[in-house]
């Protein structure tokens, strides 16, 4: 029996011509797709719309994928991630509900502190990854993946009903907000111009409700999916276009789409659900019958000028520097196991 490496030790390979994992999730079909509040805004700014997880989203804009990727690393970019499922869990038993579904200690979160966690099944397999924030307003704010929307919502709703039938005080509400991600080393500088809150006091994985460029009721969370400093802003849908327009008035900001988001997260060593982790992967280790070189995600790295990937190998082949052969488009290519992330992360933490 071969043992796969643990989830937090996904392996990096440098290899040639590896197709991006994003291509597995995209479709050209545009019928019966959900649209975010920024759909027309994307079209007006030259967004190339594609189907992704049941939504019509921009894959890129007039600038090239490479240019937008590097712009995010050097300045900042604005991503529309309104397809993500946002929910509120409220009631005095809200923590009891969430801890029955996820790994991690939700009860120990400080007010407005968040954590990355996982929905798991009875066998320990990962149903989805999500961020849970313990808000100071008396509810848990949960953001999970659009591709798992139906099963995540059903999972939480079923648990709510189960606990309510036992007399627990708990409820669930889907948040009908847009979600914008401002990512890059100048993101805080750009956002600071539009808020009264001192963003130096908002470290990585913390959250606060504030007015942003005149749009009230926005929840700003310092987090993201690029490895850079940045914020995700849950904004009431009617104010989404106004907020996005305000950001673009700053020359530091460019619009970026799914293509840049995928290559940025891969360089940062961040997993994509459905590719790098799924119901057959456990948080600690996988008893996986996969063979040497099973590659889950990969793309050319704009920053490193090399091809990079994540995957699973037997434990005895997991040491950095180990040479491997992987099959890419029916051809064997040399690969080298390397440490993750490929590009150092730049999250903002209080000193």
UniProtKB/TrEMBL annotation:
Q: Which GO terms describe its cellular component?
A: glycine cleavage complex; mitochondrion
In its UniProt record, a GO molecular function of this protein is: transaminase activity
Quote the record's binding site residues for substrate: 232
Q: Per the UniProt entry, what are the Gene Ontology biological process annotations, in alphabetical order?
A: glycine catabolic process
So what does this thing catalyse?
N(6)-[(R)-S(8)-aminomethyldihydrolipoyl]-L-lysyl-[protein] + (6S)-5,6,7,8-tetrahydrofolate = N(6)-[(R)-dihydrolipoyl]-L-lysyl-[protein] + (6R)-5,10-methylene-5,6,7,8-tetrahydrofolate + NH4(+)
Q: Name one Pfam family in it.
A: GCV_T
The chain positions of domain GCVT N-terminal read 38-292
The protein's Enzyme Commission number: 2.1.2.10
Keyword Transferase in the entry? The reply is yes
Q: Which InterPro entries match?
A: GcvT (IPR006223), GcvT/YgfZ/DmdA (IPR028896), GcvT/YgfZ_C (IPR029043), GCVT_N (IPR006222), TrmE/GcvT-like (IPR027266)
User: What keywords were assigned to this record?
Assistant: Aminotransferase, Mitochondrion, Transferase, Transit peptide
Cited SUPFAM superfamilies: Aminomethyltransferase beta-barrel domain, Folate-binding domain
Intracellular or extracellular location(s): Mitochondrion
Q: How does it assemble?
A: The glycine cleavage system is composed of four proteins: P, T, L and H.
Concerning its family, UniProt says: Belongs to the GcvT family.
Functional note? The glycine cleavage system catalyzes the degradation of glycine.
Q: What is this protein called?
A: Aminomethyltransferase
